Amino acid sequence: MPRKFFVGGNFKMNGKQAFLKELVDNLNAGNLDSNVEVVIAPPAIYLDQVRKTVRKNIGVAAQNAFNATSGAYTGEISPEQLKDLDIDWVILGHSERREIFAESDEFVASKVAHALKAGLKLIVCIGEKLEEREAGKTFEVIKRQLKPIVNAITDWSNVVLAYEPVWAIGTGKVATPEQAQEVHEFIRKWLKDNVSESVAENTRIIYGGSVNGANSADLAKKPDIDGFLVGGASLKPEFATIVNSRV
Fold first, then answer.
1. pLDDT digits 0-9 by tens, 188-223
2. Do residues 243 and 33 touch, judged by C-beta distance below 8 A?
3. What separation, in Å, do the N-terminal and C-terminal C-alpha atoms of the chain show?
4. What is the DSSP string of 83-129?
5. Which helix (H) or strand (E) holds 48?
6. How does pLDDT run across 104-122, given as a tens digit for each residue?
7. Number of C-alpha atoms within 13 angstroms, CB side, residue 80?
8. If both were cysteines, with which of 92, 95, 126, 239 could 145 make a disulfide (CB 3.0 to 4.6 Å apart)?
9. What are the E-state strand segments in 106-225?
10. pTM higher than 0.90
């Protein structure tokens, strides 16, 4: 069974109510490929607004969640609270969380475990820094990040893996289709060898890192690239072009 193409839009800390209303209106009116699963991730305070106004076949994700149900965790949001708002998805392990907020591989894995237990579907991010790629350590980093995550996952049907080379996020640089395919192929083989052939074959592995309307079609042609996690371009009309990359 072919893997369903997946395009996520990570708005990051961008947009206010009026802007997001216009963005959602454009998505609702847009001609999006019905064979693509689309999920958008607005800032946390606008999750309820977006979920109530965007069309139902577009998923809504939080950009982060904590590894507890409730408690004295000032500023955090629990997976259970997200479910209470009818939010079904969450992004975990994004490089900006790992770097700016010092989230370790083990901490990301603990959040993965809790979010799955709470019934959320996950976009889990992995990827190497520029100095790691230049030192020939890309695969080593990917394995290091994957190992604790794999141990935390009980239901792979609710997990999308996002390969996001840190050096390509928001820099305007983008991995060539060949570079991206090489890493995606490695991830799929690693899953086959360390989890199961079924998980490797069925898990969607998407690419993120300066994806835009000009490069998405070429990236989408690669056999192990199952979609995209889009940053800045998800705030622009070209997001529809990216969703329709395989049309």
1. 999 999 999 999 999 999 999 889 999 999 999 999
2. yes
3. 19
4. HHTT--EEEES-HHHHHHS---HHHHHHHHHHHHHTT-EEEEEE---
5. helix 47-53
6. 999 999 999 999 999 999 9
7. 7
8. 126
9. 121-126, 159-163, 204-207
10. yes
